[in-house]
# Entry
Amino acid sequence: MRKHLLTVAIGVLALSGTALAHEPGEVIFRVGAAHVAPDVDSSRVKVGGAQTNIKADVKSDTQLGLTASWIVVPHFGIELLAATPFDHQVKLKPGGGSSVRLGKVKQLPPTLSAQYYFLSPQSRLQPYVGLGVNHTWFFKEKLASAQKANYDDFELENSWGWAAQIGADIQIGNGMYVNASVWKIDIDTKAKLRQANGTPVSVKAELDPWVYFLGLGFRF
Ligand code: NI
# Structure
């Protein structure tokens, strides 16, 4: 009996040892820290159609990121990026003045990418590039308490755009990896709000963030 168990154990080890790789049909799940650093290009804030010299700014945030890559054929995979909601501070920057807090917004940026893995499916190092599409959903827009007397109806428009990435899986054990990846994502939005007297206020902003991910990967 003991001998049989040993045979089975060796068999399982041998089997899992053969699937060393980013082979078709494999799925690599990765979990780690995702940092979204907006690279903001803002228009001037419009108040009732008139341009001011104020611009908008959006700050960085780090959340739990999840990616899953399905290897479809050798060297090619499809990846989904997901995360817990990012929470960004939104600021107003008067020309020449120091910025003031306007409020906060949460966002989820699901991104679907086609990936190319350069090296042999057996390689322990798996560098890749990807190109895909992003949808960013903005929600829970909240004005800073100091702004609640000035504004109301704060809202950001959702965004569709392209996403480009580079990254690598580095095998550290059987079916286990360290992953590092970077995306540049095209996220453009328009923030709208209302002054207390009802005058509409709006500003367009290209957030176009760099997204950095560092985590562990597991192959299934
Ligand atoms: Ni853009």
